[in-house]
Every structure is written in structure tokens, then in C-alpha cells.
Specification:
2 copies of one chain form a homodimer. Helix content of chain A is 13%, strand content 29%. Chain A contains 3 helices and 10 strands, in the order E-E-E-E-H-E-E-H-H-E-E-E-E. In chain A, the strands form 2 sheets. The first copy, chain A, has a 6-stranded antiparallel sheet with strand order 1-10-3-8-6-5, covered by helices on one side. In chain A, a hairpin with a 5-residue loop joins strand 5 and strand 6. Chain A starts with a strand and ends with a strand. Chains A and B meet through helix 1 and helix 2 of A and helix 1 and helix 2 of B.
Chain lengths: 195, 195
Amino acid sequence: MIEVPAREGRGVRVAAGQSFRVIDVDGGQVADTFAFRADDISEYHSAEHTRAYVSRLFPRVGEHFVTNHRRPILRLEEDLTPGIHDMLCAACDPERYTGLGVEGWHASCQENLQRAMADLGHPDVEVPQPINLFMNIPVLADGELGWEPAPTVAGDSVTLRAEIDCLVVVSACPQDIVPINGNHPTPIAIELLDL
Amino acid sequence: MIEVPAREGRGVRVAAGQSFRVIDVDGGQVADTFAFRADDISEYHSAEHTRAYVSRLFPRVGEHFVTNHRRPILRLEEDLTPGIHDMLCAACDPERYTGLGVEGWHASCQENLQRAMADLGHPDVEVPQPINLFMNIPVLADGELGWEPAPTVAGDSVTLRAEIDCLVVVSACPQDIVPINGNHPTPIAIELLDL
């Protein structure tokens, strides 16, 4: 079990065919999740290609997330949550917090991704749009987006299977101004399952 | 007036403060539109940052499109169309057409972008998610996406204003299998307006 402390990120190598569970330890916490092809990180999960691939805003159980080359990289194996996730919004980054009025440094999913990828040997990385597990961004009738607290409770989880060898990074989103984490960021856990 | 022939793309430099009109010449034609910061093309229009910035699937007239650094790059000045546009789907690319059963080469918005940026002196370019002007991808109640013909008629247009010096590329989408262009790709025009 890999603990992702509140406001931090962690990366892990996952082999083709291996599954992993992303667990919302305390509930109500967004997990920004990224996946890169292990032997060429210029290929990575791409939200805009996945939406076109599944003709949906978010895949259903049994469907795939694909890369910027439209190659399946992750499969949604199991969803033990209320089924609310986001794939519309960029990772939070320093400019996001400046725009929200924060002065000085604030942890962000972008920096968490960059640090985790550096720890895996990749100090230079494109920042893809994440799979925002547990994140509650309803699309209203006129195309407006809501920013609601994550509806998960402690122990809720999503299981994903890697379809190619990949590097997976999960960030326990440090957002504490917009209420997506109930204004109280908490940890996430990654459980690698047996191949 | 810059003609963008059917199935092709064209790039143009636009100065900060200058507006340009993207015109659907014959109607029913999707225009994939990209914008890069002129003096550093690693900064470009980003759909996932724009959605978060305006809290909508697509900006309204008077609102901004922002870059991957959340900096305003284009402003939606005027919309003389039925108001249907897409910012969910990746540019079509060789893998898209292979997946649709095409054998051999097929023109694509990705290659049109790459060629247009090479003509502007940038042979190596990240492929961002485009602003798909005139494209009709309805979001259904359960998150399913439709792929419908563009509802524009001949001469419909959108006017955008550059907020920083930028390189703009417009591709007259060559998609002729999925019916977004009525299975008959036609030209687009770009009209640069006086500063």
C-alpha cells in the first residue's frame, strides 16, 4: 500500500495487465491521476482522446482510457464510489492559486506530478489533463460547470488495470479554497494488486 | 482574406489586440482552431484550463480562452452562428482514421496543424486540444456525446481577438466518415481585421 499524504503526490510503475486501486482514505477527497507510457513518456493518457474514444465525458466500468495516440492505457475495472468523477478540468497549478488570491507558494497537483515524475527519473514532463477521480463537477443544462464537494466516503475506491507498462502518478489534491475537497485535503492510498 | 481549402490548414500571426474572423464559407463545416503564444510556443490555448477559467464547457461572447498558464490568449468577440461549438474532442489524427477503418493515408487536423506550424517556422509542436468551431457534439443527460452535423449555414462566422501576440492555425476538418461535416468537407476562411 502506497500512502499519498494529504496535499502530496506519489508515482508508481505498473506493469501491463496489473491492476491498482485508488482509495479515498477519509472520504471527500479528489485524486488527480496521470498515466504515462513507461518506455516513452511523450505518450500519456489524454482526456480529449478518451472522450472521443468512448463517446462519453467519462468511461464506464469495462471501458478504456486512451493515450494521445488513441492506444488503451488504463481500463476502468471497478468503481466502488457514487460514480462521480471529472475529466474536464486541468490540474491545479501555481497560476490557479494566484488567480484565487493566494499570496506565496501553495501546493498544487501540477507540482506534485512534476515531483513524482522526477522521482521516477523524468525531471522534464508535459502536464496532461488528469483523471480527477472522486471529483464532482456537474455539467448544468446550459453548459455551466459546478464545483461541488466530492461525494465519496472513507474507503471508497476505483480499480484501474494498466494495459501497457506505465508510470502512474496520483496527487491528493491540495485545493482548499474551492470546496471540491470540503476545504480540508486528506490522504489517498494506492494499492497495487497481484498481477 | 486567407482561404483554408477543404481538408487543409493555414496558420497566421495575429498581433495582441487584433481580431480575426473564422468564416464557414459553405456552411456545415467544422474549423479546428489552435492558438500559440508567438514568442514561446510551449504556451498555447488549453481547453482544460479554459473550462476551469470560465466554469463552462465553452466561453460565452465576451469571455476568454486561456493558455496552459491560465493567461488570456483569445477573447470571443462575436458569434454569428447558432452558437454550437465543441471543446471536448481531440483533433482528428492518423490513428483516428485507422480506428475508423481507413486504409492508407487520410488528411487530419493534427497533420494540418503540424504543417501550418512548420510553415510558420516551428517544425516541432505539441498538439493541443483544439477549439472546434461550428462542431456539434451534444452532451446527453448520462454523459454520452453525440456526433452531429455542424448547424452553420454559408457565411456564418465567429470573431476572436488575440490578447497576446500569437500564432493561430485553423484546419478545415477533413472528417468525412463521422457526419460532423455532413460527410462533405468544405473550405474555411480567415479574415484578419484592422488593429
